[in-house]
Design goal:
This protein is an all-alpha fold. The protein folds into 2 domains: about 80 residues, no CATH class; about 45 residues, no CATH class.
Length: about 160
């Protein structure tokens, strides 16, 4: 649940370019930098945004030998792409596109208290460079939590 859940994830190519730039800059500055390979990051994004169809993809990849894929030396993107193809799932559909305002997300069954409409308005504010005032020092931003026992409001009202 984030205002940026509607945004596309960077492509593997963009991640590789940005990662290379960061690595070169870090090396010049004498800083060590470790990060996942772009293909691993892409797969993590697909799995994080995935729906029920991911279960079949994960099982297929496992049956095809995917083990310890969080470790770079064990990761085989070809195996995962074969699993996506075998199950008729386009992984880019999950990560490489901006989603519409009304599109549902698999994690929306989890109620974190903050409303979808508030998150969307926060996305709009962020994209236009507007800041949302901190409700701890001012008025309630009506995020949705106020209806479920917001600790900030309770503290302000002497109940916390």
């Amino acid at each position: 649940h984030t205002p940026f859940q509607w945004e596309a994830q960077a492509t593997v190519e963009d991640l590789a370019m940005k990662g290379g730039t960061l690595k070169r800059m870090a090396k010049k500055a004498g800083i060590g930098l470790n990060y996942h390979e772009p293909a691993q990051t892409f797969l993590e994004g697909v799995l994080a945004r995935g729906d029920r169809r991911m279960a079949a993809v994960i099982e297929r990849a496992w049956r095809d030998g995917a083990r310890f894929d969080g470790w770079t030396e064990c990761f085989d993107m070809g195996r995962w792409m074969n699993a996506f193809d075998s199950e008729g799932v386009d992984p880019k559909e999950y990560t490489c596109r901006t989603r519409g305002a009304e599109e549902a997300f698999p994690w929306e069954v989890v109620d974190v208290g903050v409303s979808r409409s508030f998150l969307w308005s926060e996305r709009e504010r962020a994209l236009s460079g507007d800041l949302t005032p901190d409700c701890r020092g001012g008025s309630c931003n009506l995020c949705g939590w106020q209806k479920d026992g917001c600790p900030v409001l309770e503290e302000k009202n002497g109940q916390g």
